[in-house]
Amino acid sequence: MKYSIGVDMGGTNTDMGLVTENGNIFQRRNIPTNAYTELEPYVRDMMREVKAMMEEQQAIDGEAVELEGIGIGAPNGNFYTGCVDNAPNLTIKGVLDFGKEIKKYMSVPVVLSNDANAAAYGEYVYGGARGMKHFIMFTLGTGVGSGIVIDGKLVHGSTGGAGELGHNILVPHGRKCSCGREGCLETYTSARGIVQTYCELKGVPVTPDVTSKMIGELAHQGDPIAMKTWETVGDQLGLAMANSVTFSAPEAIFLMGGPTQVGEPLLKPLRESFEKYLLNIYVGSCRIRMSELKANEVAILGAAALIKMKNENGK
Amino acid sequence: MKYSIGVDMGGTNTDMGLVTENGNIFQRRNIPTNAYTELEPYVRDMMREVKAMMEEQQAIDGEAVELEGIGIGAPNGNFYTGCVDNAPNLTIKGVLDFGKEIKKYMSVPVVLSNDANAAAYGEYVYGGARGMKHFIMFTLGTGVGSGIVIDGKLVHGSTGGAGELGHNILVPHGRKCSCGREGCLETYTSARGIVQTYCELKGVPVTPDVTSKMIGELAHQGDPIAMKTWETVGDQLGLAMANSVTFSAPEAIFLMGGPTQVGEPLLKPLRESFEKYLLNIYVGSCRIRMSELKANEVAILGAAALIKMKNENGK
């Protein structure tokens, strides 16, 4: 049977899956990314797990695993070069050429892109964006990422670095961002930004024991400051989403990531804000939707989907 | 010889040109748009002028004019439907189906898009964006328009209404915009927005005798309020342009339109602002450039270029 490998390279862990053509994950493995400081041993161990997954699946299927390719979603992953370019939150530093390294072990197509682009493409191939030609994915997590699909193609731009809407400046001279600038969307609507808003509203310093998950639980218990926090975040994210519509007039904007699991306390003000800020010519043509992929599968599925993109683009 | 017709439909005038394959305008004509309230007589007179241009050129060439098509740049022009959709600043109201109407006179391809999209495509086919695959065009005028090219294709989006960056909300709860919302880029960096900024800085009411052209002349004479006006506008536009880069990572952002002819008083603060607000991963990969097409030719050339797009897309 035909499979793809999806690799979700995070700063802490690297999750891998053997994915069927229909988007089912039949095998899963992981290795600790932050235990490595060099690409060679990291890829060696990654490929050991890939081969183990293939062998296990072969035993179950009773026939050889036909591998279509390896898709990798990684921070600062560049689709054009196939390299991870100096990702600040990885312990493996520098420009990491995965294609070259993997070739030592296996001769299959290797496609790499950043994690948010992969998530968007996963939604397109396996999730709620199937059949759509134009949509945008926002991922909320430690940071805020985005992936943009136009005319059925993921937008990579001239450098491979397109789709960084988390670094759209929402508030000029606003909060300090990890990118060195001020007021990026990410500083308000990432998990960290949400915690900061809550602490500011409460008038207390930011401490590690406050999490966006906790603020979600408090909101469901009716805590007014927590509720006000999600209203603020929803308003800011809705504005950013409405602005993004003026660019590509998408059919939908998808949303995923840890902080979105709070549900209505975020989604209600988000939808209201989106409607309020949406330019009249787009009203009724674009709506906000939650990702239809499971939270613990989307990253692997997205990475595996990148292989489909390579095939479709004939590259 | 082969020619295209480019039609620039403005609220006041409709300019038409017979354009060679290399982007030379050999014949020009115009009719007063605002003298019409119905599509039928408007297209009738437009086609009369088109035929007159063709006959005149035929006499010069000594051979039949081979017409590749008619491209129309119009406010609210929709590429997908070939219609102008309820443009507020036209005296001809409603949904205007140009393709259907033109077919009564001539059987050639008709392509229609909004004016800023046409300008972007003109830059791509005939101007400074030749050979580029990713760029954005900002047009400053009565309003602020934009056209976006990704992977060598004009972005139309799911509705045909993509590329309205003039209606990105720059300042939440800011200046009232003609679209009914508040704080759109257009309210700050259109000719009208520039006049408003100047009058606000001077502490006088906005009157019709103040124009952006006059503010440009004052800046060149060293008038401090005029200079401060352009600095403010440059800073705002630079931020908007830097934000647009996070979407598609273009090679260049082009700029055109009346207010840009002031030159350095606008361009210097604009470039400084763009550099200040540009996300680090894009530094060095994208620069701001002035349109290379003549101000009095760009609209006709852009409209004519739309025919090339139709041919390339195989539609």
Layout of strands and helices, then pairs:
Two copies of one chain form a homodimer.
Chain A: E1 2-9, E2 13-20, E3 25-32, H1 39-61, E4 66-73, E5 77-78, E6 83-85, E7 95-97, H2 98-103, E8 110-113, H3 115-126, E9 135-140, E10 144-150, E11 153-154, H4 186-189, H5 191-202, H6 212-220, H7 224-248, E12 252-256, H8 264-277, E13 287-290, H9 298-312
Parallel strand pairs in A: 1-4, 4-8, 9-12, 12-13
Antiparallel strand pairs in A: 1-2, 2-3, 5-6, 6-7, 9-10, 10-11
What structural class do the secondary elements of chain A suggest?
Answer: alpha/beta
Number of strands of chain A: 13
The helix content of chain A is 25-40%
Largest interface: A-B, 43 and 43 residues
What do we call the CATH topology of the largest domain in chain A?
Nucleotidyltransferase, domain 5
Fourth-tier CATH superfamily name of the largest domain in chain A: ATPase, nucleotide binding domain
Distance between the termini of chain A: 23 Å
User: Which strand-content bin applies to the residues of chain A?
Assistant: 15-25%
Overall pLDDT confidence of chain A: 95
Sum up the structure in keywords.
homodimer; 315 residues; alpha/beta; Nucleotidyltransferase, domain 5; 2 domains; five-stranded mixed sheet; globular
What does this protein look like?
- Two copies of one chain form a homodimer.
- With 315 residues, chain A is of the alpha/beta class.
- Chain A folds into two domains: 2-119 and 296-312, Nucleotidyltransferase, domain 5 (2-Layer Sandwich); 132-290, ATPase, nucleotide binding domain (Nucleotidyltransferase, domain 5).
- In chain A, 38% of the residues lie in helices and 22% in strands.
- Chain A has nine helices and 13 strands.
- Chain A has helices at 39-61, 98-103, 115-126, 186-189, 191-202, 212-220, 224-248, 264-277, 298-312; strands spanning 2-9, 13-20, 25-32, 66-73, 77-78, 83-85, 95-97, 110-113, 135-140, 144-150, 153-154, 252-256, 287-290.
- The first copy, chain A, has a five-stranded mixed β-sheet with strand order 3-2-1-4-8, sandwiched between helices.
- In chain A, helix 3 (115-126) packs across helix 9 (298-312), helix 6 crosses helix 7 and helix 7 (224-248) packs across helix 8 (264-277).
- Chain A is globular, with a radius of gyration of 20 Å.
- Chain A binds chain B through residues 76, 132-134, 148, 150-151, 153, 155-165, 167-169, 172, 179-181, 239, 242-244, 246-251, 277, 279-282, 285-286, and chain B through 76, 132-134, 148, 150-151, 153, 155-165, 167-169, 172, 179-181, 239, 242-244, 246-251, 277, 279-282, 285-286.
